[in-house]
Amino acid sequence: MKVTKIVILLLFPSLLLGRKTEDVEVVYELKKNVSYLDENGSIDPYRKQRCKLDLYYPRSEKAFPTVVWFHGGGLRSGEKSIPKQLRKQGIAVVAPNYRLFPKAKCPDYVDDAAAAVAWTFRNIGKFGGDPGLIFVSGHSAGGYLTSMIGLDKAYLAEHGIDADRLAGLIPFSGHTITHFTPREERGISKKQVVVDKFAPIFHLRKEAATILIITGDRKLEMLGRHEENAYFWRMLKVVGHPNAEILELSGFDHGGMASPAFPHLLKFVKKQKNR
Asked: pTM of the entire structure?
């Protein structure tokens, strides 16, 4: 397991998630390729290969928030990474890989996402983080995974964790209907709308964690992505969810919306931390 230490010296007052720091040395550490699986019993070699995460955290801080960040790629490509926009922000970032189609089938990738979040609940306190301040986010397929494990309580319940303990969900332009890859697995066209147990919108609950939904411009997004997220937000309101917001980032397409979305994510984390 590779460990990298990053030291940042703040020579003048700055704002780090709402807390002023002056002449404070903030030490960040990066732990790479940490397995998030329960090692008891036999594990499929492909799952063992993919089910690893990177952890980036402020080693010199305590009680910091953590963002679990899932990469995109249509559930069929992509690699874990710590987004540069989330570095040096006074938070920890957990970036997991997960199994991908066609080697994996639905719901393998959702199971993996839940296992990574469960690892975070069990372990972030050992690194100084606050287990009560765990947020889940991701772009595109990562946004879909975010909403699935946050809305369908069954996935985290497999690990003895109540999904409503999450401090917040911040899906970036994720499917809220059944993702097109599980549809393809069943021979269903990308243009055929399906809402079943693999659709976040199927699991609407007023008790779910606070959620900030972010999409690109409705005129530039892919496959009606803004509209399905707008309906998702509206129906959360209908079922009585008290803390659901939606943002549309004007002028940004599906791929380009992630970068301008990160400041909204950080603002959201700061707001929840200071509640």
From this structure: 0.91
